[in-house]
Amino acid sequence: MKVNVEIVTGTFIDAEVSENATVKELKEKIAKEVKLSVKRLILLVGDGEEIRRMVKDDEDEMKLTDLGVKEDSHMYLFFKHPDLVCKEERSQGRGDDASVEEVSSEAESKRGNKEEDEEAAKGEEEDIAMKNGKEDREEEKKKNNGEETKDDDKVEDGKEKARGEENEIDRAS
């Protein structure tokens, strides 16, 4: 029997299953197609004038035909967030056998935090360097009892020289 599964993203999967296939068998076929864990899949069944309803996790062993699914039935597929699946497993005491998907999701999360931490540390280092530079200038000024440093003297000399040259040009014209 062929069933049409519409994914929440708007794409369709045409799944071919036996007449007496279970919900779990259908979910396994779909999981391979969408490359997600079976635990994350949520199916809504009900076609045409029938009332649509969500297939509960404890109904995975039910036959599709018992849920009203027949040839060319249309279903909807939604996904549980990986964190929700992980919480459900922990509450049922199955937290130790985490799937590869959940572990990789957790690892991805930690990697993102590490990059953010490195950026924050770099920013802090720049702030400290700027602060130290300002403190160094203030210390230099204190050493000279508030007088300008030699570098500042050179700048002032250059300014005076430029003013003198401007005055000479003004006089010549």
UniProtKB/TrEMBL annotation:
One of its GO terms (biological process) is proteasome-mediated ubiquitin-dependent protein catabolic process. Residues 1-84 form the Ubiquitin-like domain. GO terms for molecular function: polyubiquitin modification-dependent protein binding; proteasome binding; ubiquitin binding. Residues 88-173 are annotated as: Disordered. This is Ubiquitin-like domain-containing protein. Gene3D superfamilies: Phosphatidylinositol 3-kinase Catalytic Subunit, Chain A, domain 1 (3.10.20.90). GO terms for cellular component: cytosol; nucleoplasm. Residues 88-97, 107-173 have a biased composition (Basic and acidic residues). PROSITE patterns: UBIQUITIN_2. The lineage of its organism: Eukaryota, Viridiplantae, Streptophyta, Embryophyta, Tracheophyta. SUPFAM superfamilies: Ubiquitin-like.
